[in-house]
Amino acid sequence: MICYELFLRSFFDGNGDGIGDLEGLEHMLDYLIDLGVDCIWLLPIMSSPAFHGYTVSDFQSINSLYGNFDDLNKLLSSAHSKGIKIILDIPVNHVSVCHEWFVKALQGESKYQKYFTWSNDKTDINELRHWGNARIWHSIDNKHFYGLFGPGSADLNFENPFVVDEIKKVFSFWLEKGFDGFRLDAAKHIFDYNTQKMKFEYQHEKNIAFWEDMRDYILGINKDAVIISEVWDSPEIVKKYEGLFEIGFNFPFSYSIKDSVKNNDASFLADEMQKNLSSYFADSQVVTKSGNFLTNHDMTRLYSELGNIKDVRFAFSILFTLPGIPFIYYGEELAMQGKLKSVDFTEDSQEPMQWYELGYGYGQTEWKGYKFNPVGTGRSVQAQLQDSNSFLSFMKQLILFRKDNLWLEDSKIQIIARSKKSLTLKLYCSKKEALVIYNFSSVKKVLCEENSKIFYISNCQKKGKEVIMRPKSVLVIIKNHKTQPGSL
Ligand code: ACG
Question: Model-level pTM greater than 0.90?
Answer without folding.
Answer: yes
